[in-house]
Amino acid sequence: MCSLPIPLEPLCRVAVTGGTHGNEMSGVYLARHWLRAPGELQRPSFSAVPVLANPAATAVCRRHIGRDLNRTFTNTFLTSKPTPDEPYEVTRARELNQLLGPKNSSQAFDFLLDLHNTTANMGTCFILNVTDIFAMHLCHRLQLQHSEPRPRVVVFKLSQEETFSIDSVAKHGMTIELGPQPQGVLQANLFSRMRSLVASTLDLIELFNQGTAFPAFEMEVYRFLSCTDFPHTEDGDLAGMVHPQLQDQDFEPLQPGAPIFQMFSGEDVLYEGDSTVYPVFINEAAYYEKNIAFMKTEKVTVSIPALPVLSPAPAH
Amino acid sequence: MTGKPIKKIAIFGGTHGNELTGVFLVKHWLQDGAEIQRTGLEVKPFITNPRAVKKCMRYIDCDLNRVFDLENLGKKISEDLPYEVRRAQEINHLFGPKDSKGSYDIIFDLHNTTSNMGCTLILEDSKNDFLIQMFHYIKTSLAPLPCYIYLIEHPSLKYATTRSIAKYPVGIEVGPQPQGVLRADILDQMRKMIKHALDFIHHFNEGKEFPPCTTEAYKIMEKVDFPRNENGEISAIIHPNLQDQDWKPLHPGDPVFVTLDGKTIPLGGDCTVYPVFVNEAAYYEKKEAFAKTTKLTLSAKSIRSSFH
Hints:
The structure holds 2 protein chains of 2 kinds.
Chain A: E1 14-18, H1 25-36, E2 42-43, E3 46-47, E4 49-52, H2 55-59, H3 75-78, H4 88-100, E5 111-117, E6 123-129, H5 133-145, E7 152-156, E8 172-179, H6 188-209, E9 217-229, E10 240-242, E11 259-263, E12 268-270, E13 278-280, E14 292-304
Parallel strand pairs in A: 1-4, 1-5, 5-8, 6-7, 7-9
Antiparallel strand pairs in A: 2-3, 6-8, 9-14, 10-11, 11-12, 13-14
Helix pairs in contact in A: 1-6, 5-6
Chain B: E1 2-3, E2 8-13, H1 20-31, E3 42-47, H2 50-55, H3 70-73, H4 83-95, E4 106-112, E5 118-123, H5 129-142, E6 147-151, E7 168-175, H6 184-205, E8 213-224, E9 236-238, E10 255-259, E11 264-266, E12 274-276, E13 290-300, E14 304-305
Parallel strand pairs in B: 1-14, 2-3, 2-4, 4-7, 5-6, 6-8
Antiparallel strand pairs in B: 5-7, 8-13, 9-10, 10-11, 12-13
């Protein structure tokens, strides 16, 4: 496995981003709150920086203005020459790359935690690149600390050239995804759950910085396979919807032959794959424009090696 | 009392372009309307805000469901008018004119809410025997699935709805469903509400007599904003105990909001209220965290079509 470098120094430059999608309100309100009162993000060895990632989209409570910011942190966009008519998010991605990166450079932030909500019934979910051994350790520990609901881990396996999301700008990073919550709505239980997960994440980074051992472990993860599109009419309109038996069943096994869509005309469409998969992001509002009805994952166990133990930070 | 048979009905979807159940039911019925046809009735499905539907937004310039007052409907057409005001005039021309003899008899306007309101019928006039009878029929037919009647008759809080151009305006609101999402269970419930409504009209036109009835309703009293800081930003959110508790009694002293620092703000006053539209996404910009209602009983006289 081609892994990201494992940190050999304390992680002192940490950022927490909210409002990467302007209508996912847990992160929007936490980032705004911390920008006024950042004390909660301080630890002995570092102070995490709160960032409202897409302020223009947040101001109008939309996912994005011109294009999805969280798909814009590719080398191609980040190194493109500014043009007057480029989408707002391309300009903003370059700004954030200056602030938190530059991507793939030694000056980049050590860790970036990005906060999201989904309309899908995903409970507590962490999303990350499986090659980021440090972040995998954090997910494992967070799973042990936060049992209700049990956090799930969704992993992608992307090379540095393929990464596209805001956390890829930093040396290490991950996304916290909480649902279900409608776009534009702030629910108190998800807000406090997000807040507590961020606090635990910062505590774990502090533990690592202080020289705590993070031994090897095995962990069950959901590995991304592919997306399943909605059925469409010839005119490009939706021809059906997520089947009631699949709705809200994120992370539950989907067997070949099980219904996945209910057409407006009444008949069912069945899952035609030849193996059991685990669907996630079922009926996520933001994916209608991408035509995605859900994503398929497979459940696998991964072995993660121990982190090197840092020597305790000298007392100040 | 007797009344004329019902002739012309419209079913509106997409008055808010991101409330997808009505959008897709109406689009489906435009392709295949067999299930909404009844003998002797003209039933016309119609997308009211196609530009907002295309963008999957509530509206383009302003809320279409607030501009059917005589002032907006009478404004001189110009390019400077908000899109929804121009569109309201077109809709009024097609299905109204409001308060005229030629207007449609009944308009059903299909909406979704992010609040946990279940099946809701919205009534604008507590004296309308015909609609009270219809709502009673729909409630009875849906049982055991609950169905609530929300009465928006109020000197200042009633608003100029799209459906108000018809003689009998009916708002249908089903939730919870996020904006921009289509759920099969919610679609099934709304479809049943329309089926029972059309069946009722069909029975009425055929001469069936509906005896006097009473039914429970919730009447709007007051809209409640979120607590805000000096910059006008929201400083407290709906308390977990109130989230999803639409239609349930809320007593003085019960928690309503929780501040970002964790302090609970209770309900003041000295009367029990019934909250609705608790934490509706679209009402953040209208400065409405929920609305208080009071429970009452509506009664309707017996009705029968005059042409039998």
